[in-house]
Structure formats: C-alpha cells, structure tokens
C-alpha cells in the first residue's frame, strides 16, 4: 500500500487517505469528531500514526499541517456567528413551498411546492435553472444525491416518487407502488438506491437505475412520515410513524430488524448521528428520545412540558441534539453522558417547526410559524439575528455545506437567500 494524498473534510472534521493497493486507488475515512479549537494536533497525529499503517514518519508533519488547517477552520467558524443579509428573494412557485435543500457546493438549491413541481435554482444569480414537471399532486419531499448532486428525488402526494437528472431536468425513473401519499424520499449515500415513506403505512426501497422496487417494509400500524439511511454502510434504514414507534430495517432483507418503543403519541421526526451510533426521535407526546442503535434501547428522554416536539437535529459531530417545540422554543442538549440541557432558545411567538445546526455547530437555525427564522448561539442560547421578511409561516430552512448561506422557504410561495 502507498499513500498518495490527504483530503480534508470540514464538516464534520475528518481526513480521507487516498492510497493505492495492488494498483487500485482506494480511500479511507478517518473521523475526527472530537477535534476542536483546544485540540493538540501533535498528539492527535501520533495517535493516528499508531493505528494507521499508511501514516509513516515521513508524512507525519504533513498530517499535522492538515489537522492544523481543520483546527483553524473550526476556530474561524466559532460560536460568535456572523451577520447574514438578505441576498435574493426567489418568487419560486405559484403555491406554497413545502421543502428546500442545497446541493453540496451551495451553488444550487431545490424547492418543492403545492403547485406540483420541483424547481432547481442558481443561488448566485437567483434564477431558475430547471422546472421538474410531471407529478400530478403536491411535491412534498425533495433531495439531492449527496455528495455528487447530479440527481434529484421528489416524493409526491400523487403516490409516486421520481428521480431526475439535475443537469437536463429529465425524469429518469418513476417509482410506483405506494397506495398513499409519499411524504419522504431519500437517496442512499454511496449507493444507487432510493427509500420512500408513505401515508400507506409502508416504506419502500428502489433501484435508481432501473426504477425497480427492491423491498416493501411492512410493520407500522399507521402512516410512515420520516426515514433516513444509515450514513456509514447504507445497509440500514430508520423509519418513524404516527403509530409512535421507530423501526430499523436492513436494506438487504425485507424484515424489520428492531422496533423501538417508548413514545406514546405520533413520531414527528427521526435522525441518525453522523456515525450512526445514536438515533434521535421527536414526538407529539412532548418528548425527544435518544437511542443507542447497537443496544437498541432508549438512553435518554428529553421532555418539553406542555408542548409537542416537532423536529430534532444532531450537530455534525453528533455531540449535541437540538429540538423544536410547539411552544415556540428550541432546546439544545448534550448527546452524550447524561444528556444535560445546554441551551434554551426563547423568542419565537409561535411554534418552531424546524431546527438545524450550522456546519461548524456554533449556531442553530430555527424556522417558525411566526414568519421569521432565527439564528442562535448554540452554546449560550442567545439570539444572534432575526431573519424577517416572509409574509407567512416558514416551513423549511437550511445552511449550505460551507455555512455561509442560508435558505428559508415559506407558505408565501417564496424562498429567501441569506449570506
């Protein structure tokens, strides 16, 4: 084996080793989830060298330089936060926007709408690149295939999902089989598969190339409203349902691997941590739960008295967990040890429907029915900025991968780009 080069991954911090083995170029990822502004890069470099045969004394100094670069990036994107200004207003659709997502580079974003279309936008110019037309009802879910982002998947109330070429705007596959509205659709990382969740109480797995259905996941007793692939090996899917349960599925078979019980009302969201060792769930029973995926047990219950928990989000490193409440507040907890409360964000006058961390984790973005989004210091809970201007409730919001751009999507049929 011969090491060729290092590749840096900023979010979450990590290094990819590019090397050759028997003449074939390969890659190996090294996660550095504990790296922060106080880390000693020499100590970390020596620890990596002891575990990794590709790291020799000759490249140790170069490794230290890479770690120093990552450390400076973390310091630069610290919790102090930067002011965002309104850059573009995209009058995107004829009817309300349902969801929005950036591509990896942050140059494009996609929007779904009640007008039955998905649109691809150039973020810099604010112009429409493509309109993806073909669904016969609301386009509720939109997603790129990360990290390549050359395809888009849409899930619709017309009971189908579609896969599109992001370059040509042409539909390359229509995924049929559900008897109810498709409310979530996602590409598998590093695999040519798409998973969908439906109001028909099932989830399905499809082959992207052929459009063929691979598995139907049956077991939930009510609507399946959330799903996510395991980010590591893509061999597991988690689903959340209005029946109050979370199910784990193996993509190689159709049977349920495990059912996680504990919520006493509808599950409103589920999310894996970056390394897929933890799972978070949000519920209308007023709680979020943290689950150990390997042990398949609940390790913490985080209650919000008198309010429903509408969304849940890990930071990139999987160290912290944020929740969105119908009481107009967001909360941040430690996702390790005793799950102690770290910050309580109060300021919205109506329910918070969406929460997401900035890539570096120093800021938290919230979207609310009060027509505003807010940026908070995720460590102190202080509000850094109010993003106002929408004429109706904000359904969705997102940071770009670089963390320098925000998009907010509203019931007022528009998106606003902030930089």
SSE blueprint and pairings:
Blueprint: E1 2-9, E2 14-21, E3 24-31, H1 41-51, H2 57-76, E4 86-91, E5 97-102, E6 108-113, E7 117-122, E8 128-133, E9 139-144, E10 151-156, E11 161-165, E12 171-175, E13 182-187, E14 193-198, E15 202-207, E16 213-218, E17 224-229, E18 236-241, E19 246-250, E20 256-260, E21 267-272, E22 278-283, E23 287-292, E24 297-303, E25 309-314, E26 320-325, E27 329-334, E28 341-346, E29 352-357, E30 363-368, E31 373-377, E32 383-387, E33 394-399, E34 406-410, E35 414-418
Antiparallel strand pairs: 1-2, 2-3, 4-35, 5-6, 6-7, 7-8, 9-10, 10-11, 11-12, 13-14, 14-15, 15-16, 17-18, 18-19, 19-20, 21-22, 22-23, 23-24, 25-26, 26-27, 27-28, 29-30, 30-31, 31-32, 33-34, 34-35
Helix pairs in contact: 1-2
How many H/I helical runs? Answer: 2
Distance from N terminus to C terminus (CA atoms, Å) equals 44 Å
Side-by-side strand order of the widest sheet: 4-35-34-33
Strand content: over 45%
Percent helix range: under 10%
Tell me, rounded to a whole number, the average pLDDT.
Answer: 93
Rg value: 21 Å
Spans where pLDDT lies below 50 across 5 or more residues: none
Total number of strands: 35
- The oligomeric state is single chain
Rough outline: globular
Category from helices, strands and their pairing: mainly beta
């Amino acid at each position: 084996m011969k090491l060729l080069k290092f590749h840096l991954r900023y979010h979450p911090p990590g290094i990819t080793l590019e090397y050759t083995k028997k003449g074939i170029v390969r890659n190996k990822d090294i996660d550095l989830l504990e790296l922060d502004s106080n880390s000693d890069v020499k100590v970390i470099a020596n620890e990596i060298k002891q575990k990794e045969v590709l790291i020799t004394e000759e490249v140790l100094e170069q490794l230290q330089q890479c770690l120093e670069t990552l450390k400076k990036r973390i310091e630069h994107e610290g919790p102090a936060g930067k002011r965002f200004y309104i850059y573009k207003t995209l009058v995107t659709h004829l009817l309300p926007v349902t969801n929005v997502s950036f591509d990896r580079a942050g140059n494009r974003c996609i929007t779904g709408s009640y007008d039955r279309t998905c649109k691809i936008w150039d973020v810099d110019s604010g112009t429409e690149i493509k309109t993806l037309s073909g669904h016969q009802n609301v386009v509720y879910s939109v997603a790129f295939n990360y990290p390549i982002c050359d395809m888009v998947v849409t899930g619709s109330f017309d009971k189908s999902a579609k896969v599109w070429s992001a370059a040509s705007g042409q539909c390359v596959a229509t995924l049929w089989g559900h008897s109810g509205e498709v409310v979530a659709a996602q590409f598998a990382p590093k695999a040519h598969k798409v998973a969908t969740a439906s109001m028909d109480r099932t989830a399905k797995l499809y082959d992207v190339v052929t459009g063929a259905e691979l598995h139907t996941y049956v077991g939930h007793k009510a609507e399946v409203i959330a799903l996510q692939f395991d980010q590591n090996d893509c061999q597991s899917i988690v689903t959340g349902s209005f029946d109050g349960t979370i199910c784990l599925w193996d993509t190689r078979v159709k049977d349920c691997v495990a059912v996680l019980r504990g919520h006493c009302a509808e599950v409103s969201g589920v999310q894996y941590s970056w390394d897929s060792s933890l799972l978070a769930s949000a519920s209308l029973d007023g709680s979020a739960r943290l689950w150990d995926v390997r042990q398949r047990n609940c390790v913490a219950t985080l209650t919000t008295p008198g309010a429903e928990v509408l969304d849940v989000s890990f930071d990139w490193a999987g160290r912290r967990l944020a929740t969105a409440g119908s009481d107009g507040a967001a909360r941040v907890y430690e996702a390790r040890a005793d799950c102690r409360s770290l910050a309580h964000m109060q300021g919205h006058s109506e329910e918070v429907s969406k929460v997401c961390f900035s890539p570096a984790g120093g800021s938290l973005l919230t979207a609310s029915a009060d027509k505003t989004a807010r940026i908070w210091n995720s460590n102190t809970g202080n509000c850094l900025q109010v993003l106002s201007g929408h004429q109706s409730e904000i359904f969705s919001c997102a940071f770009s991968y670089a963390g320098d751009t925000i998009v907010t999507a509203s019931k007022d049929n528009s998106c606003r780009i902030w930089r």
